[in-house]
Amino acid sequence: MISVILVGNGNVATHLYEAFIGVDEIKVTQISSRELALIPQADVTIIAVSDDAIAEISSKITNDFIVHTSGSVSLNDLKNTTRKGVFYMLQTFSKDKKVNFNEVPFCLEAENEKDHKLLETLATSIGKKIYKINSEQRKTLHVAAVFVNNFTNYMYKIGNDICEKNNVPFEILQPLIKETASKIDYLSPKNAQTGPAIRNDEKTIKNHLNLLDTNQQKIYKILTKSIQNSIDCV
Amino acid sequence: MISVILVGNGNVATHLYEAFIGVDEIKVTQISSRELALIPQADVTIIAVSDDAIAEISSKITNDFIVHTSGSVSLNDLKNTTRKGVFYMLQTFSKDKKVNFNEVPFCLEAENEKDHKLLETLATSIGKKIYKINSEQRKTLHVAAVFVNNFTNYMYKIGNDICEKNNVPFEILQPLIKETASKIDYLSPKNAQTGPAIRNDEKTIKNHLNLLDTNQQKIYKILTKSIQNSIDCV
């Protein structure tokens, strides 16, 4: 039996709590970060709070083994004087949507092999995709995630804005969006690249620019140029 | 029975041919654009060739009703003297991958209601998602598709480059990529936007910029600023 304390009330803490509660070998307790004085001892204490609060909250807990769940915070930003680790799940968690933990990559870090094994046992009790990722690698993943998640979503937003302005239903683009995401399962993004930029189709590029507002033009131009340069370097 | 001539040997022509051949009510013949002199008469002649070749090829065909399959070419760029139309499928077609036409949006345009009905009958014989889209709207869709497909794939490429440079497996990001694409089924891209840009999290933004090369920084900055401005305008 592994005892787990979950500190926090947000999406990550709540989804994790619901997952652990279904595992026989885990005894899990969820605690608000406002009740730090009342935290019982446990094999693993998981702090699932906002990045800015991790240092302060970890400094106030005396439990043996404390891990955080952040992609952008280093292991050493934990300020407990006991053992430290990271239990980072690279996925977007929405409040009302059930998480399929089998699809969630668990990025684990610990100070020694025994602690790493413990985190691995926790992760495999609810998931399948387990990775050993140190703080430097995790920072890398976090910034890469900004491109493939935040900036990609912003590409969808621009597409939506263009459609709305011209009275075209955005839903027409949704199958293409899904296919674009699926394609990289069997093609590298480099080999999956299509479009006027990579074809050097100046006529289409000019036509497209005429349809865009100033801000959209700026983004279209910089991405087109960058795609074209990325080919020259091959 | 509807008779269809397909002109072209590319991905679109070939996938369409394979779909139509399975429909009892359609008699389809595929012809290379080099055999224009031999084209028999048909109810619909579909020119599925590269954008640049559409005007010339259409000018050489005397069949009654000629349509093209391009997203960026106007109906009036067809140079036949008979009836014109557009049979545009908004999806990426890969040579070796079977197309699920039920998921493909058909964007149809014709000069009169009767021709539109004919194209609709063709489209519904192999697919489900049928839209009436004029040439202006189609141009809009085409540029929006550049953002949600070409530029999105380029975001994946940058994510991949960042991972490769730091020895992190890119596959860790794939579930996030899929979830990002699925999320807009139930949230508008505007409401699905997350990340340091929209949170105005200057500390994380600064940390991220330190991990990127000059070109990646340029893209990161312009997209971050644009996301932040898009909020101010709400």
Q: What is the oligomer described by this structure?
A: homodimer
- The geometry of chain A reads as elongated
**What is the CA-based Rg of chain A, rounded?**
22 Å
CATH homologous superfamily placement of the largest domain in chain A: NAD(P)-binding Rossmann-like Domain
CATH topology of the largest domain in chain A: Rossmann fold
Q: How do the strands line up in the largest sheet of chain A? A: 2-1-3-4-5-6-7
Give the H and E element order of chain A.
EHEEHEEEHEHHHHHH
Helix fraction of chain A, binned, reads: 40-55%
CATH class of the largest domain in chain A: Alpha Beta
Question: Using CB atoms under 8 Å apart, which protein chain pair has the greatest interface?
Answer: A-B, 84 and 84 residues
Largest sheet of chain A: 7 strands, mixed
| Share in β-strands of chain A | 15-25%
Class per helix and strand makeup of chain A: alpha/beta
* Termini gap of chain A: 53 Å
Return residue spans of chain A where pLDDT drops below 50 for at least 5 consecutive residues: none
